[in-house]
């Protein structure tokens, strides 16, 4: 089984799950070629693992202009009809507007460069993560190179503007699409006619048990301050401003705790201002972006993991907290209820209900036995469904079937 993998940017801090997926497929004998539309900035390469992934990834951009022109001339000379049809498809597969028209030409330029490399390596199947601009490049490249292709859908970002309006055409052309949750699959089904529904199936993201630190033995005798931890990019959709408000409310109801925020992003200044506005500087700590193992170590030290997100898929960070015996509080959105059962393996609250989150924090902080009870069921849930060597099974089967069909078609 030989497959091309395409991501808009790889490696990236939020794409640990892709690395785990690739590693598991390789353990099963797959030969994976990794492609990225753009190059990861040096500051995004935090570990030796990141740097090794970067080195083996073939990047579409940046590219010498003369090399790009050469790729297009070679593509046109070798297959002028396909070249012009792909250009036409790029122009049609876009949103209205002059800017979008210009971007469609950029995607076409990138797609031809990618297609040339796919042809050079004689690859027959392309698998793309996310329905974003990278998927548009993959869609066009696969069409020009005559490859079958598939796409992994993860969450709300795949259905929002500008990806959402173009999703249906992509899904009609794929061999299959694996979805991270039943919720995501249901949303995707709305974009395509029923004759394409069987192409879509649920294939979970999963954690890698071998990389997990040991759960921490906690002192629950009141001798130390309770620690609430949250991990996520500091941006509006991750909801940290709401978490700070809820944390302040919970402290006002008697909860004695500190809040640790791991992550960085464009809203850091707003987060710092919100902490100051609630006079929480002495008990709120911003750790910034951390390498994977350092982040896991921080999670393991927590007593409660709080997720305040306004949009999500099925967050890996929740799985990691659950397997590390840290009780979780999360919003009742998207695929999260498929992972966290309210009152059994965690606590769910209505999204953006900061009063509800505050009450959940205060209640769980005051109930040591409930926290212990939740972690037992949570770990069982993750081990049953969300460990990578199990989670990757449906995707591996689909890729094997797709590449076998391609091989048989070439023989015939």
Outline:
This protein has 412 residues and is α/β, with parallel strands linked by helices. It has helices at residues 16-27, 48-56, 65-78, 80-92, 98-120, 133-145, 164-173, 182-189, 240-252, 268-277, 292-300, 316-323, 354-365, 368-385, 388-391, 393-411; strands spanning 2-9, 31-38, 58-59, 125-129, 148-153, 176-179, 200-202, 226-231, 257-262, 284-288, 304-306, 328-331, 347-349. It contains 16 helices and 13 strands.
Structure description:
The protein is of the alpha/beta class and 412 residues long. It has helices at residues 16-27, 48-56, 65-78, 80-92, 98-120, 133-145, 164-173, 182-189, 240-252, 268-277, 292-300, 316-323, 354-365, 368-385, 388-391, 393-411, and strands at residues 2-9, 31-38, 58-59, 125-129, 148-153, 176-179, 200-202, 226-231, 257-262, 284-288, 304-306, 328-331, 347-349. The two termini are 18 Å apart. Helix 4 (80-92) runs antiparallel to helix 5 (98-120), helix 5 packs across helix 6 (133-145) and helix 9 packs parallel to helix 10 (268-277). The chain folds into two domains: 2-206 and 388-411, Glycogen Phosphorylase B (Rossmann fold), CATH 3.40.50; 211-385, Rossmann fold, CATH 3.40.50. The chain is elongated. The strands form two sheets. It has a seven-stranded parallel beta sheet, with helices on both faces. It has a six-stranded parallel beta sheet with strand order 10-9-8-11-12-13, sandwiched between helices.
């Amino acid at each position: 089984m030989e497959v091309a993998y395409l991501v808009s940017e790889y490696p990236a801090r939020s794409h640990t799950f892709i690395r785990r997926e690739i590693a598991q497929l390789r353990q099963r004998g797959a030969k994976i070629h990794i492609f990225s539309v753009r190059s990861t900035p040096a500051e995004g390469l935090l570990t030796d693992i990141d740097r090794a992934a970067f080195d083996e990834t073939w990047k579409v951009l940046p590219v010498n202009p003369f090399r790009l022109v050469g790729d297009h001339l070679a593509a046109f000379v070798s297959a002028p009809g396909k070249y012009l049809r792909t250009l036409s498809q790029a122009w049609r597969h876009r949103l209205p507007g002059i800017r979008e028209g210009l971007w469609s030409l950029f995607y076409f330029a990138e797609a031809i460069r990618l297609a040339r490399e796919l042809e050079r390596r004689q690859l027959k199947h392309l698998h793309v993560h996310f329905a974003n601009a990278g998927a548009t490049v993959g869609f066009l490249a696969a069409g020009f190179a005559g490859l079958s292709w598939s796409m992994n859908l993860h969450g709300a970002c795949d259905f929002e503007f500008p990806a959402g309006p173009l999703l249906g055409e992509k899904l009609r052309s794929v061999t299959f699409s694996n979805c991270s949750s039943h919720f995501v699959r249901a949303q995707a089904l709305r974009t395509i006619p029923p004759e394409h529904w069987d192409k879509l199936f649920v294939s979970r993201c999963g954690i890698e048990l071998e990389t997990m630190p040991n759960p921490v033995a906690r002192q629950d005798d009141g001798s130390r301050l309770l620690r609430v931890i949250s991990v996520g990019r500091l941006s509006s959709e991750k909801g940290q401003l709401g978490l700070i408000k809820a944390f302040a409310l919970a402290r006002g109801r008697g909860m004695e705790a500190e809040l640790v925020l791991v992550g960085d992003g464009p809203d850091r200044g707003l987060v710092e201002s919100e902490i100051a506005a609630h006079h929480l500087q002495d008990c709120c700590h911003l750790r910034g972006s951390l390498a994977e193992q350092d982040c896991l170590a921080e999670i393991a030290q927590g007593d409660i993991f709080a997720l305040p997100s306004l949009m999500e898929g099925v967050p890996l960070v929740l799985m990691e907290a659950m397997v590390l015996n840290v009780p979780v509080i999360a919003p009742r959105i998207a695929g999260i209820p498929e992972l966290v059962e309210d009152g059994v393996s965690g606590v769910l609250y209505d999204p953006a209900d900061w009063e509800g989150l505050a009450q959940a924090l205060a209640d769980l902080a005051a109930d040591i036995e409930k926290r212990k009870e939740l972690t037992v069921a949570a770990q069982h849930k993750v081990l049953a469904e969300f460990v990578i060597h199990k989670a990757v099974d449906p995707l591996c089967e689909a890729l094997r079937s797709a590449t076998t069909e391609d091989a048989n078609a070439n023989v015939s």
